[in-house]
Amino acid sequence: MAGIAAPRMAHSEPVIPDWVTVAGERARGYGMPAGQEAHVQRAIIEPFKDIAPSFSFSGTPHQRLRGTITPSGLHFEVHHGGRPNVDPEQHRLMIHGLVERPLKFDLDSLGRYPMVTATHFLECSGNSLFNAIMPEPMQAGCDVLHGLLSNTEWTGIPMSILLEEAGVKPEGLWVVAVGNDGPSLARSIPIEKLMDDAMLALYQNGERVRPEQGYPMRLLLPGYEGNMNVKWLTSLWVTDAPAHTKDESGEYTELLADGSAVKFTFGMGVKSIITHPSATMTMSGQGYYEISGLAWSGSGPIRRVEISADGGQSWAEAELVEPVLSRALTRFRLPWRWEGAPTLLMSRAEDSTGAVQPTRSEWKARYDPSNFLHNNAIQAWQITSEGMVQNVYA
Amino acid sequence: MAGIAAPRMAHSEPVIPDWVTVAGERARGYGMPAGQEAHVQRAIIEPFKDIAPSFSFSGTPHQRLRGTITPSGLHFEVHHGGRPNVDPEQHRLMIHGLVERPLKFDLDSLGRYPMVTATHFLECSGNSLFNAIMPEPMQAGCDVLHGLLSNTEWTGIPMSILLEEAGVKPEGLWVVAVGNDGPSLARSIPIEKLMDDAMLALYQNGERVRPEQGYPMRLLLPGYEGNMNVKWLTSLWVTDAPAHTKDESGEYTELLADGSAVKFTFGMGVKSIITHPSATMTMSGQGYYEISGLAWSGSGPIRRVEISADGGQSWAEAELVEPVLSRALTRFRLPWRWEGAPTLLMSRAEDSTGAVQPTRSEWKARYDPSNFLHNNAIQAWQITSEGMVQNVYA
Fold first, then answer.
1. In this structure, how many other beta carbons lie within 10 angstroms of the beta carbon of residue B313?
2. How many Å is the Cα radius of gyration of chain B?
3. Which one of A41, A117, A207 would you mutate to disrupt binding with B, by most B Cβ within 10 Å of its Cβ?
4. A93-254 maps to which CATH number?
5. What is the interface size between A and B, counted as CB pairs within 8 Å?
6. Counting Cβ atoms within 10 Å, is residue A284 exposed (0-12), middle (13-18) or buried (19+)?
7. Domain with CATH 3.90.420.10 in chain B
8. Three-class SS string for chain B?
9. Which residues of B fall within a CB distance of 8 Å from A17?
10. What InterPro entries has UniProt attached to this entry (chains A, B) (predicted)?
C-alpha cells in the first residue's frame, strides 16, 4: 500500500477519553445510527415543486454508503401524494376481474403463504433526471443526481401463487395494479411478468416493509421501473388489455426525437455510477485511491464494469463484489493512483444480455430534448488539479 | 374494534379509509418502521443482572423477521460495560508490538484503503444459554432463546492489508485486539485468521457501523464467536503468544464433563432454528403452513437442512434460499400441512465440512452441567393439539 501515508506512532501524552471512564448506555429495543452520523440522510429533492406540489422525492446518499444493501431508513422515496398512514388491520388486497374466484386478503391470511426472498434494486424511471435536461451539469452529490435508486432484500409471496389461486381466465392478459393512497397510482402489467418473478413484498431487509415503501404490502417487479412496483397495493384487476391509466399514458411515457412517444418502457437499462470519488467530494492528496461504485440492469446480472480515467480513451475492468445477483446493485472496485493531474473518470457497465451503457450524447440523440426518463447514460466526473470532483457532460 | 377479533370483510359496506382522503406525509431524511410495528423490538435480556450488573443484552426478534438480513436497528447487542459514545474524530486504531512499523490510524486515513464487502452472521457464544442450563425449558420466543444472533452486510478493510503495512515480524503469531470502552474487552487471535478473511469493519448494511456494533470501527472475524469481533477496536498488539486476558481465561471458556476447561473455542458450530412456527406462537388452524427458519455455521456454507415433524424419526430436506453464503445466515423453507395433532418439530443443519447439529442430550453429555457456551443443539418445538407452540427438550 505504498502511497497511503499512515502516520507512524509518536509519543504523546496519554489521554483517557470520557467514554472509557463513564458507563455506557444499556441495550435498547431499536437502534439508530450514531449521533455523529446524523448528516447521513436522504436528500430531499423537489424538482417539480411548482407544477406538482404534492409530489415529494428523497434520494439515497450513495456517496456516503459503501456496501450494496441500502439500509431501509435511506431507501429512496417518490410519492405522488405523500406517505399514507395505512392501517394494516383494515388494509385489503383484492384480486378480481378476469378470474374464476375473486379473492380478498387481509395481512393475517397472507402470513401462511409460501414466501421467497431476493435482493433487488428499485430505480425511479426519473432517476438522473437533472443530467438529462439541465443545460449545464448540476453540481450536486450522488444523492441528488442519482439517488432515486436503492437495493434491499425483499421477502414476500410469489404473485403466481396468488393469481393461480384466483384462477386467471385465458383472456386475462394484463393486470392493473392499484395503490391504496390518495393518487391511487395504477399501472398495467403483462400477466407474464406477474407469473414469472413478481412478488407481493411483505418484508424489507428482514422486517416489515417500511411505510414509505408501501407498508403493509407492495408489488415487486424485479428490474421494472420504480412506479410499477405499486406501493400500498390494494387491487389487482385482471383484464384483457392495458388500462391506459393517467400514470402510464401521461406521466411515464418517453417522447422520442422523431416526435413519437414510447409507452410501457418497463425494464430499466444497464447503468453504473462511480460513488467514490464523486461530485462534491475533494481528493485528499495524490496517491492511492480505490474507485468504487454501483452497477445494475433491469435485464439480468452485471457481466462487466469498466473504468476510464482518460475520458473514455482507455478502459480497465473493475472487480465485481460477489455474489453478483440478477437485478440487484453490484458494487465494483478498482485500485487507482491519482497523480494530481486533471482527470475525467467514467464507468461503463455491461449486463448479461450484452447491453452496454450509452454515452450521454448517444442517449440524448434518441429522445426529444424534454425527456428525462430512463436516463442510463455514462456519468463522467471531472477531477480538477485542486482535487475537486465535479459533474460534467462528456 | 378494540379487543374484538375483527370478522372477515366478506360482505361489508364500501369504506374509503382516511389515508386515501387526506394528504400523506412528505419525503423525509431518515425513515423508520411503521408505528403499528413499534412492538418489533430487540428483546432486552438480563440473565446475569445480579452477578454482572454492567452486562446488558438484547436479542434479535427472529420470530418476527422473514428474510436473511437483520436490519441494523435489530442487530443483537452484548455489552460488558454499555454502549460507549465514542468520538470518531478522537478515536484511533494502533497496530503495535512485534511489527516493523507501529502504525496509528484515524477514521479519515482509513477511508482511502481498499475495501471488501461480505454478509456474515455474528453469534454470541452464549446464545441459546437458557436451553443449555435451565432445568425446564423456558417458554419464550426466538428473541430471548436464540436472539444473540444476527446477519448483516459488512464493508471494511481487509486486516491483512493493514498488518502488511505494519510489517509483522516472523515471531508475531498472535494479535491481542482491544476495544475502546470501559471494560477494554481484549481477545487473542491467531495471526492466520487475521491474514485470512478478517476485516476492519467500517460499514454495516451500507451505512456506518452502528454504535452498539462498534462505531466507528470493529473487528470482524467471520465465523468466530461474537465477543472476538471486538467492537470500538482501538489496539492490535502483535505478540508471540496469547495474552490470556480475563475475557479468555475467565468468561469465555467451556467447562467439560471431565472437569477440564476448553479455551480458545473460536468457531461457532453448525446450527439452525425454526423461526416459523416457534415458541409463543399459536397456529391459526389446520392446513397448509410454510416451515421457515435460519441455519448457519462458523466453518463454511450450509450444505443441507432437514426438518422432522415426528420428533426426529423421519426427516425431509428443506429448500435453501439462494445465494447460500459462507458464514452467513441461510434461510430454509419447507411446505407442510398441520393436521391438528400434537407435533414435535425439529431442524437439523449440516455444513460444507459435513458437521451436523447434535441433539440436546449429545451436546449436554460433552460438558459440565454449568456450561452454557457454544450450545448448537437441535431445537425442538412442541405443537399442542390446541395449536400452541412450546419450547421443549427432546
1. 8
2. 23
3. A207
4. 3.90.420.10
5. 325
6. middle
7. 93-255
8. CCCCCCCCCCCCCCCCCHHHHCCCECCCCCCCCCHHHCCCCCEEECCCCCCCCCCEEEECCHHHCCCCCCCHHHCCEEECCCECCCCCCCCCEEEEECECCCEEECHHHHCCCCCEEEEEEEECCCCCHHHHHCCCCCCCCHHHHHCCEEEEEEEEEEHHHHHHHHCECCCCCEEEEEECCCCCCEEEEEHHHHHHCCEEEEEECCEECCHHHCCCCEEECCCECHHHCCCCEEEEEEECCCCCCHHHHHHCCEEECCCCEECCCCECCCEEEEEECCCCCECCCCEEEEEEEEEECCCCCEEEEEEECECCCCCEECEECCCCCCCCCEEEEEEEEECCCCEEEEEEEEECCCCECCCHHHHHHHECCCCCCCCCCCCEEEECCCCEEEEECC
9. 86-87, 90, 180
10. Ig_E-set, MoCF_OxRdtse_dimer, Mopterin_OxRdtase_euk, OxRdtase_Mopterin-bd_dom, OxRdtase_Mopterin-bd_sf, Sulfite_DH_SoxC
Which chain A residues are within 8 Å of B96, Cβ to Cβ? 9
Nearest by CB to B203, which of A22, A66, A72? A66
Interface list for B 36-65 with A (CB within 8 A): 36-37, 40-42, 44-45, 54, 56-58, 64-65
Largest interatomic CA distance in chain A: 81
Instruction: Classify the complex by whether its ipTM is higher than 0.90, answering yes or no.
Output: yes
CB contact under 8 A, A84 and B116: no
Name every chain B residue with its beta carbon within 8 A of the beta carbon of A33.
30, 72, 207-208, 210-211
Residues of B whose CB is below 8 A from A19: 84-87, 180-182
Q: Compare B51 and A286 and report the one with higher pLDDT.
A: A286
Q: Is B94 on the interface with A (CB under 8 A)?
A: yes
Give the residue on A whose Cα is nearest the Cα of B110. A6
Inform me whether the C-beta atom of residue B74 falls under 8 Å from chain A C-beta atoms: yes
Instruction: Give B189-233 pLDDT, tens digit per residue.
Output: 999 999 999 999 999 999 999 999 999 999 999 999 999 999 999
- Take residue A294 and report the three cell numbers written for it: 454501483
CATH architecture of the domain covering B271-392: Sandwich (2.60)
The answer to whether the CB atoms of B58 and A29 lie below 8 A apart is yes
Residue with cell 388494509: A91
Confidence of residue A10 (pLDDT cuts 50, 70, 90): low
Q: What are phi and psi of A159, to 5 degrees?
A: -60, -30
What are the chain A neighbours of B72 within 8 Å (beta carbons)? 31, 33, 71
Please calculate the CA angle B251-B256-B257 and round it to the nearest 5 degrees. Answer: 140
Residue B46 has pLDDT above 90, yes or no: no
> What residues of chain B lie within 8 A of the CB of A64, using their CB?
207
Cβ separation B19–A86 shorter than 8 A = yes
Q: Contact A27/B56, CB-based, under 8 Å?
A: yes
pLDDT above 90 as % of chain A = 89
List the single residue in A20, A210, A325 with the smallest CB-CB distance to B31. Answer: A210
Nearest by CB to B182, which of A23, A56, A75?
A: A23
Please tell me the CATH code under which domain B93-255 is placed: 3.90.420.10
> If 0-12 CB within 10 Å is exposed, 13-18 middle and 19+ buried, where does residue B354 land?
exposed
* Residue ranges, CATH 2.60.40.650, chain B: 271-392
A354 in contact with B at a CB cutoff of 8 Å? no
Q: How sure is the predictor about A47, in pLDDT bands with cuts at 50, 70 and 90? A: confident
**A342-378: per-residue pLDDT in tens?**
999 999 999 999 999 999 999 999 999 999 999 999 9
Q: Is A85 on the interface with B (CB under 8 A)?
A: yes
> Which residues on B lie below 8 Å from A281 (Cβ)?
none
